[in-house]
Design brief:
126 residues; mainly alpha; 5 helices
């Protein structure tokens, strides 16, 4: 079985998590803060810039300042988020297919009578 493809946006976060050695909680906090995964390198502490806080500490500081708590209440991994998105999309497609099938199996109006197509509008032709 092939591995399911991950959304590009989530893949950017997976790459950033690997590159900057962030935990799942830190990635979730950064996503909730609206940070750009491509720009995390600017915020990351480099040896030449000892005045910068380490990236996980900086994310925690921003999160606490914005949301008033140190960590999210529930932490979901990016893989869990991707699975839930695909499950939700699959359910949406299935519901749409069911609605389409019900619509083609004898369209009826509220009185239970078969519906007629709407009358054509002949206002434009003279």
């Amino acid at each position: 079985m092939t591995k399911p493809k991950v959304d590009q946006q989530l893949q950017a976060w997976i790459d950033a998590r690997r590159r900057h050695r962030l935990s799942h909680a830190h990635v979730q906090m950064a996503r909730e803060l609206g940070l750009n995964p491509a720009k995390l390198g600017k915020l990351d502490n480099h040896r030449q810039e000892p005045w910068k806080a380490p990236l996980p500490d900086f994310i925690e500081h921003l999160y606490e300042r914005s949301f008033g708590r140190r960590r999210p209440e529930t932490v979901l991994t990016l893989e869990q988020v991707a699975r839930e998105r695909t499950k939700k999309a699959r359910a949406r497609r299935e519901a749409k297919k069911q609605r389409k099938l019900q619509g083609t199996q004898g369209e009826t109006n509220s009185a239970g009578n078969p519906t007629d197509p709407p009358p054509k509008d002949n206002l434009g032709s003279s």
